[in-house]
């Protein structure tokens, strides 16, 4: 039996190669890419400008399918979270955050995460597996459809519900490099989503050799999860620091900036009460990043059950931000969005740990789907 390929994970070269195997010219691959990603079409028969015999081949050998949706929550602030089933009791999450001037989709790259940061609920659930490229792109494909992006009237008005994509969901993107790279290429492709490099951000806990590879292969905006100003504390918070200490991480950031689409690195810094939020920590940070053009994004810690950690008080966060700003570093504090639906950073897929419940829910959704089809 020939393997059925999920076209959502093929970048331009991959799709062109498949199409060549099927005896098709390269422009067919581009047409197909536009149907899939720009029109959100999954039914080959609806792709009216493809020859009938090619559609038949596609029907036999290929498919276009995002991971099935297990749950779809909308927060009071408009944040929307989808829980997607990636099999074997694993679910991943994608979160859409609407703002006045943009719409950001936050996507996942792994089911679970092996880095195991002390303050992260994803890390606490352990590592299940890497997502395939089609599962990463499938999150954007699905969200676009759910938000009406394929609608010709909306497209004619030039409206795009999703203007930015951040790889800040579950998982460490640079520990799933090949699939992340394929997904990035699809996000940037003009025949697919056509996003500019500045509007796509990869967030990493600091996988130094892969920061260099990303710089060479596909430099997009880079966010680095710093969280501590010295190795002793960062070793505790982000265990990967024991392998790639701060001096190496800072050097990798400087090398990245030689090719980056933006002229700064965004440092993310989770604010943990009494752990990393003192004036002394702020001073140390300023010394650490002296040679790295950067902005800071302070993230108030989002609690989850049994974390044993607390969010820094608001006035402490303000004071910390002010110290960085006074030294000339643009500093923002992330507004917590979607807290009422557990969609905030580091809270993702807390539910996955309860696999039985997930399986029950998946079965329930499948039964509801069958019932709807039968009607
Ligand atoms: N693995 C990558 C990307 C996913 S995590 C990384 O670590 O960068 C995205 C961001 O959410 C990271 O900056 C991470 O440190 C932060 N985060 C994780 N858990 C959090 C929590 N409980 N509260 C606030 N931010 C958290
Ligand atoms: Fe993994 Fe990022 Fe969570 Fe750390 S913060 S455990 S790297 S997902």
Can you characterise this structure?
The chain is α/β, with parallel strands linked by helices and 375 residues long. It contains 13 helices and 14 strands. The protein has a ten-stranded mixed sheet with strand order 3-4-5-6-9-10-11-12-13-14. Helix 5 runs parallel beside helix 7, helix 8 runs parallel beside helix 10 and helix 11 runs parallel beside helix 12. The longest helix is centred in the C-terminal third of the chain and has 20 residues. The radius of gyration is 21 Å and the shape is elongated. The two termini are 33 Å apart. The C terminus is likely disordered. Bound molecules: S-adenosyl-L-homocysteine and iron/sulfur cluster.
Give descriptors for this structure:
single chain, 375 residues, alpha/beta, two-stranded parallel ribbon, binds S-adenosyl-L-homocysteine
How are the secondary structure elements laid out?
Elements: E1 5-6, H1 12-21, H2 26-38, H3 52-61, E2 62-63, E3 69-74, E4 80-85, E5 91-98, E6 103-106, E7 110-112, H4 121-124, E8 127-130, H5 133-146, H6 152-156, E9 164-167, H7 177-188, E10 200-204, H8 208-217, E11 221-225, H9 231-237, H10 246-257, E12 265-271, H11 279-288, E13 294-300, H12 314-326, E14 331-333, H13 355-374
Parallel strand pairs: 1-2, 6-9, 9-10, 10-11, 11-12, 12-13, 13-14
Antiparallel strand pairs: 3-4, 4-5, 5-6, 7-8
Helix pairs in contact: 1-2, 5-7, 8-10, 11-12
Bound molecules: S-adenosyl-L-homocysteine and iron/sulfur cluster.
Shape: elongated
Largest sheet: 10 strands, mixed
Computed structural class: alpha/beta
Helix count?
13
- Rg (C-alpha, Å): 21 Å
- Unreliable parts: 350-375
- Distance from N terminus to C terminus (CA atoms, Å) equals 33 Å
| Strand order in the largest sheet | 3-4-5-6-9-10-11-12-13-14
Question: What percent of the residues sit in helical stretches (DSSP H or I)?
Answer: 25-40%
* Average pLDDT score: 91
**Ligand roster:** S-adenosyl-L-homocysteine, iron/sulfur cluster
How do the helices and strands follow one another from N- to C-terminus?
Answer: EHHHEEEEEEHEHHEHEHEHHEHEHEH
Number of DSSP strand runs: 14
Strand residue content: 15-25%
């Amino acid at each position: 039996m020939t393997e059925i390929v999920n076209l959502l994970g093929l970048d331009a070269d991959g799709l062109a190669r498949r199409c060549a195997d099927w005896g098709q010219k390269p422009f067919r691959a581009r047409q197909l890419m536009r149907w899939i990603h720009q029109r959100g079409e999954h039914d080959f028969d609806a792709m009216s400008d493809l020859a009938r015999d090619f559609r038949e081949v596609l029907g036999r050998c290929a498919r276009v399918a995002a991971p099935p949706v297990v749950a779809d929550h909308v927060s009071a602030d408009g944040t929307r979270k989808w829980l997607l089933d990636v099999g074997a009791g694993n679910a991943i999450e994608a979160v859409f955050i609407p703002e006045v001037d943009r719409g950001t989709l936050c996507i996942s790259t792994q089911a679970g995460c092996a880095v195991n940061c002390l303050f992260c609920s994803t890390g606490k659930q352990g590592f299940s597996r890497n997502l395939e490229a089609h599962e990463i792109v499938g999150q954007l494909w699905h969200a676009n459809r759910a938000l009406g992006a394929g609608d010709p009237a909306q497209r004619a008005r030039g409206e795009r519900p999703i203007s930015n994509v951040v790889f800040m969901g579950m998982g460490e993107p640079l520990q799933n490099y090949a699939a992340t790279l394929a997904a990035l290429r699809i996000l940037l492709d003009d025949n697919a989503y056509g996003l500019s490099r500045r509007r796509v951000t990869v967030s990493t806990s600091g996988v130094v050799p892969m920061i260099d590879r990303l710089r060479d292969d596909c430099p997009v905006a880079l966010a680095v999860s710093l969280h501590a100003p010295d190795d002793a504390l960062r070793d505790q918070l982000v265990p990967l620091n024991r392998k790639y200490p701060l001096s190496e991480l800072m050097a990798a950031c400087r090398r990245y900036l030689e090719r980056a689409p933006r002229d700064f690195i965004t440092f993310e810094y989770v604010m943990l009460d009494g752990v990393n939020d003192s004036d002394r920590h702020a001073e140390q940070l300023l010394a650490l990043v002296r040679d790295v053009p950067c902005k800071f994004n302070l993230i108030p810690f989002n609690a989850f059950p049994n974390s044993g950690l607390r969010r820094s008080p608001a006035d402490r966060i303000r004071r910390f931000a002010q110290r960085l700003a006074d030294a000339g570093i643009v500093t923002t504090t992330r507004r917590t969005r979607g807290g009422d639906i557990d969609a905030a950073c580091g809270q993702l897929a807390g539910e996955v740990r309860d696999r039985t419940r997930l399986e029950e829910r998946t079965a329930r959704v499948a039964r509801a789907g069958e019932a709807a089809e039968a009607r």
